[in-house]
Design goal:
It contains seven helices and no strands. It is an all-alpha fold. The chain has one domain. α2 runs antiparallel to α5, α2 packs across α6 and α5 runs antiparallel to α6.
Length: 147
């Protein structure tokens, strides 16, 4: 398996991107210092009682499952299911991030919207499309294995 095939062919580059965004978010939180108290933009996380450790664990787990499904894609019968489940969970996480980043503005704690609101909303939309793509791959895989 070469890198070009893994990352660019078969239209899965976006899935690698969104998985990497989740992992990068987790790594940023894991870096020394308390990221969640560093900016009012993160007030929504603190208000919902989400600690850094919880977020690091969830985001890393989802990213690793998605990476596994992408890497095994085509070689393991259930890999499109992993990809689809990961994309659905990813879409939920990104949509939640968008809403949570909007909370400080919506509650009057911040005068302007954070750029994360739109950014994570776009990532959520594209993860929904990735889930659709993975479901199509499940159908293609099942048909091709019958012949």
């Amino acid at each position: 398996m070469n890198l070009r095939h893994t990352f660019l062919q078969n239209g899965r580059g976006l899935e690698w991107l969104t998985s990497s965004v989740l992992f990068a978010f987790a790594v940023s939180l894991a870096w020394p210092g308390d990221t969640l108290v560093a900016s009012r933009s993160f007030a929504g996380f603190v208000g919902l009682g989400m600690g850094e450790g919880f977020l690091i664990l969830v985001l890393t787990a989802v990213a690793l499952v998605r990476y596994s499904g992408l890497w095994a894609n085509g070689n393991v019968r259930s890999s499109p299911l992993w990809r689809g489940a990961g994309a659905i969970v990813g879409a939920g996480i990104f949509a939640s991030l968008s809403v949570i980043f909007a909370l400080p503005y919506l509650t009057g704690q911040q005068d302007a919207l954070n750029t994360g609101v739109g950014t994570y909303l776009v990532l959520a939309i594209f993860d929904v499309l990735a889930a659709y793509r993975a479901s199509a791959d499940v159908g293609i895989y099942r048909v091709s294995k019958r012949h």
